[in-house]
Design goal:
Layout: E1 6-7, E2 10-11, H1 23-30, E3 54-55, E4 59-62, E5 75-76, E6 79-88, E7 97-102, E8 108-113, E9 117-126, E10 129-140, H2 149-152, E11 158-164, E12 167-172, E13 177-182, E14 193-194, E15 210-215, E16 233-242, E17 248-254, E18 259-263, E19 270-276, E20 281-290, E21 294-303, E22 312-313, E23 317-322, E24 330-337, E25 343-349, E26 359-366
Parallel strand pairs: 18-22
Antiparallel strand pairs: 1-2, 3-10, 4-6, 5-6, 6-26, 7-8, 8-9, 9-10, 11-12, 12-13, 13-14, 15-16, 16-17, 17-18, 19-20, 20-21, 21-23, 24-25, 25-26
Length: 368
């Protein structure tokens, strides 16, 4: 979703892993043979669409602190700030980052831009802090005909990403469709196939539709119980599609118990992304904006075991931030576990290709 936000008298917007269960097979797909890339030119002014694969140089400026009012503060609810980056590039197609998935080490990533573009690459670390991005490549999302979806169907607004091993699911918010990609067939050169969705998904409001996708693996060793009733299910959550009770509409696609459920909406927050933790908890990234109240983001923790057709699920907020913090249009969240056993949350923002918004990459340790 494109959303205006005010910050320091300037309008700012409010936008992170290949899941641990999916990363081994995805890493193999990433290593598959692909055509060599040449650096892409900055492109024509005002044209952010990517029509063919290109190497991208990304510059990164560190954010040493998260709290603008208290630079020494590192604890924010259940999260502890690790590091952050402001990302820029002369490549005109770089931006609009709406979802990101990391590998098990929190290094290799795949992301989608809302302009129908894949971005892949590697996060470079200096110790525990992020230092930059390397090996970044852009490629268009392809349709079943092998052509960019932006060229043949005029589809864009690719807002969400979920992984099941070498299978990737991408949600398109404006048309409320989901495309399925088999990375074993060319990685980001693979062709997308439409995923059948409930009829109600097509009735979601324009620009408030499918905003987050999460795939529930068949086995989650750290979850209780390790095999979930929702195993093999794609969870699709709307940004602000509301049911009769004013709660956020979501769908269970495939699996043993397909159907519709709701996430209780409070304090005017909308969903922007979600991630499933190894423990079996679902973290929902949410944001809100008003001209009087400004902008805010939060993370809520939901129990996966509460989710079922017809349910209305809710959970506590474990993190809150506002314009006194280094936030923007935060649209993506992911999680990985370090070698030391720390759960790290990565968030990314969508700059809407605006000069007054930023591409932020933020990392926190989940401490509770």
């Amino acid at each position: 979703m494109r959303s205006p936000v005010s910050r320091r008298h300037v309008l700012h917007g409010m936008a992170a892993g290949l899941s641990a269960a999916a990363s081994p097979r995805l890493a193999q797909a990433q290593g598959a043979s692909q055509p060599a890339l040449t650096p892409g030119p900055p492109g024509r002014p005002g044209r952010h669409r990517v029509d063919e694969p290109a190497a991208v140089e990304v510059n990164a400026r560190p954010l040493p602190s998260f709290d603008i009012r208290d630079r020494a503060r590192v604890r924010f609810g259940a999260l502890e700030y690790r590091s952050g980056l402001i990302l820029t590039s002369s490549f005109s197609g770089f931006g609009g980052l709406s979802a990101m998935r990391l590998d098990a080490k929190g290094e290799r990533f795949i992301a989608v831009s809302d302009q129908g573009t894949w971005f892949t690459g590697r996060i470079v670390y200096r110790g525990r802090e992020m230092a930059g991005l390397d090996d970044v490549e852009a490629a268009p999302l392809l349709g079943a005909d092998g052509k960019p979806i932006t060229a043949t169907r005029g589809w864009y607004d690719s807002e969400s990403l979920a992984l099941d091993g070498s299978i990737a699911y991408v949600g398109l918010e404006r048309v409320n469709q989901v495309l399925r990609y088999d990375f074993a067939k060319g990685f980001t050169r693979a062709r997308g196939e439409l995923v059948p969705l409930p009829a109600a998904a097509r009735k979601l409001p324009i620009n408030k539709g499918l905003e987050a996708l999460v795939f529930v693996p068949k086995v989650m060793p750290k979850a209780t119980p390790p095999s979930q009733p929702l195993a093999g299910t794609l969870i699709a959550l709307s940004e602000r599609g509301l049911d009769a009770g004013g709660n956020l509409i979501a769908f269970l696609v495939g699996g043993r118990t397909p159907g519709q459920f709701s996430v209780r909406r409070t304090e005017n927050y909308d969903i922007s992304d979600a991630v499933l933790l190894p423990s079996g908890d679902l973290l929902i990234l949410e944001r809100k904006f008003s001209w009087l109240g400004g902008a805010g983001i939060r993370i809520r923790r939901l129990a996966l075991s509460d989710i079922a057709p017809g349910a209305v699920v809710d959970g506590p907020a474990i993190f809150n931030a506002d314009l006194g913090n280094e936030i923007d249009n935060m649209e993506g969240i992911d999680a990985h576990v370090t070698a030391e056993g720390e759960t790290v949350l990565t968030m990314i923002s969508d700059d809407n290709f605006s000069l007054i918004q930023r591409n932020l990459l933020l990392q926190f340790t989940l401490v509770e």
